[in-house]
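Each field is set out underneath.
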Amino acid sequence: MKRNEVENCLLCNSPIDVPVTWKTLLTNEFPRTICLECEEKFEICKTSNEEVTSLYKYNEQMKDYLHRYKFMHDLLLAKVFRYQLHYHLKKTKELIVPIPMHAEKRKERTFAHVDELLNEAVIPYTHLLEKMTTATQASKSREERLNTPQIFQLEQGVIVQQKDILLVDDIYTTGTTINHAKQLLLDAGAKSVKAFTLIRG
């Protein structure tokens, strides 16, 4: 990996001043992509349970990040949390399964945002699910989300019997998306299904 991959903060464009140390020279540590000031605006999430782990709270800084990454199609921003994701997922023994986008939405956005976060973090993953609807949870009220019928199906030929699975998504709000995916996989014979998200809303 290049040490000077990014010279200016991807969020505020101010210069990134990172001193060269023996650690950065001798390890494959991911180079910094945002400045310390921007990094400090993200709030660590302290609310988690055995079923769902989330790294950050959905605050104003994160809202702006998500908007730019997902809806303004700023693919470079997939690099911002790669160290944190790599650190938390690198020793995972479960099969990592990203929550998928509908094919039409994928074509519209030009990239799968969860896949790209994992790619930048150098975390291997496997697709098992297909999304059956183009409707997004963000466009629905809380009540509508909770009453949404099943939105996923298994990809053709997928076998999940006795597998331990870790679902990965960008944000956890009502839990509807994760619960649909979890139920489908458990019904198909998965041994266990847990979830990991970058953000908790």
Q: What stands out?
A: The domain at 43-200 is CATH 3.40.50 (Rossmann fold). The two ends are 33 Å apart (CA to CA). The chain has two domains: 1-40, 43-200.
